[in-house]
């Protein structure tokens, strides 16, 4: 038995030791500029900024193309090409540009870190929001839209007061998909000197600190799950009550584009 | 249609097998020296010079008939060192001073002394070192030419006058390293406003220094990019960096399997790798974007291997 270094007991005790180190890491590394509270905040900053920027552009654009129904297919195809671009590639492509920007534009202090990370996450967030908004607005029952027009309201009002509220569960699904993808991809920023939770993974790998790598990965996973949960909850505030995913209104809910 | 497709598939398979068999046959015939023995897996860390010198030793051994495979770009020393000790790789080009310190020894600025201490440390272990090369590659503290002129700095100590204002960029492991941030703080008394974790003396660090994102960079002293970009390598006036000659470290069982012939071959290659040659190779790799395996092949041909 003694000649079995990988026996069940040994693995068990090593696992216990590792879990102990992990717990110790979480107790010791929460505060300060390199602590995980600060890193989580940085992570949320770049994720939030890129998601908001993507939403500001993709929601109105998607809604307008969905409303008119013209040229929509071409735009959806075009935006979907964005899904094929790897985020890591965008970081690398953006870097020379952002360094140049920081050099030329006075109020941009750094071309490392935030900007290239933002560029990659923005490109990642755009397609799901656009596609879902487009599909949601276009999928609103034409009879409802006709009824609204019959009441004499303007086209803008049709879009704002009928189509967008009707499509809101699908639009929100697009935002949720993007948000989770963005939070899960933001660790890439650590490769170009951004902070965020990716720092623990990249730095941990450089010094082969398994505890730090696993702790960072767990924090990223946790934050992604929390993002998913938060967006699911937010339906409460953004989706009109008859359209919420309840048992009696199931037939009204449109199918999101995943 | 289906039948003919199947016949063609079978035919192609038979042909492929025949080709493989004949290829194997060729190998056996040309293997004039050692042939059967363990395959020598050459590893490397994750920066250009490591790929180039890794290729040089790998190709030299391959040309002499040794079975060789390569596992390059594995990561930092914290990754490759355990890989070498556990036998996942068999040969690795290391740096005497940095490795000695990593293993808990004390390195000096003298090449021979540092090498001897390393050889002593490995005697009786599963690892052994071949002769060291004349080439040295140390951590180099680098600034741009304009920065050096404007602030009148030529040595690392001069930076202390600007404590609290400078941004320093280097590899992510730098804050944990004696010869990087720890040494710069303890030995030179430097206090940087910020440390930016970038890559290991690679294109990101060069771009960041050139673009003014960082004021001070950690590059490798043998990197040809320093001269090519007009950067200034600051003098290590407090002798923080130890003698760091390139040296092949290999598993003892490989030496036992192949004997002194293998060591002689490695030593003959090592003797020709100088710092100047290395700088030139590094420059061609990072600035002219030539491939490591092509550079190694050219170098071996130029040096008569």
Structural notes for this entry:
- The complex is a heterodimer of chains A (about 260) and B (about 300).
- With about 260 residues, chain A is an all-alpha fold.
- Chain A has one domain (about 35-250): MetI-like fold (Orthogonal Bundle), CATH 1.10.3720.
- Chain A contains nine helices and no strands.
- Chain A is globular and about 75 Å long.
- Chain A starts with 7 loop residues before the first helix and ends in a 20-residue tail after the last helix.
- With about 300 residues, chain B is of the alpha/beta class.
- Chain B contains 13 helices and ten strands.
- In chain B, the strands form two sheets. In chain B, strands 2-1-3-10-4 form a five-stranded mixed beta sheet, with helices on both faces. In chain B, strands 7-6-8-5-9 form a five-stranded mixed beta sheet.
- In chain B, helix 7 links the parallel strand 6 and strand 7.
- Chain B is globular.
- The interface of A and B includes residues 95, 99 and 103 of A.
Q: Care to give the gist of this entry?
A:
The complex is a heterodimer of chains A (258) and B (305). Chain A is 73% helix and 0% strand.
Task: Provide keyphrases for this structure.
heterodimer, A: 258 residues, MetI-like fold, globular, B: 305 residues, alpha/beta, D-Maltodextrin-Binding Protein, domain 2, 5-stranded mixed beta sheet, 10 strands, 47% helix
Task: Walk me through the topology.
The complex is a heterodimer of chains A (258) and B (305).
Chain A: H1 8-28, H2 36-68, H3 72-84, H4 87-104, H5 114-138, H6 142-150, H7 155-185, H8 198-206, H9 210-238
Chain B: H1 2-30, E1 40-43, H2 48-63, E2 68-71, H3 77-85, E3 91-95, H4 96-102, H5 111-122, E4 127-129, E5 139-144, H6 145-151, E6 167-170, H7 178-186, E7 194-197, H8 203-210, E8 216-220, H9 225-228, E9 231-233, E10 246-251, H10 252-258, H11 260-270, H12 275-286, H13 292-302
Parallel strand pairs in B: 1-2, 1-3, 6-7, 6-8
Antiparallel strand pairs in B: 3-10, 4-10, 5-8, 5-9
Helix pairs in contact in B: 2-11, 2-13, 4-5
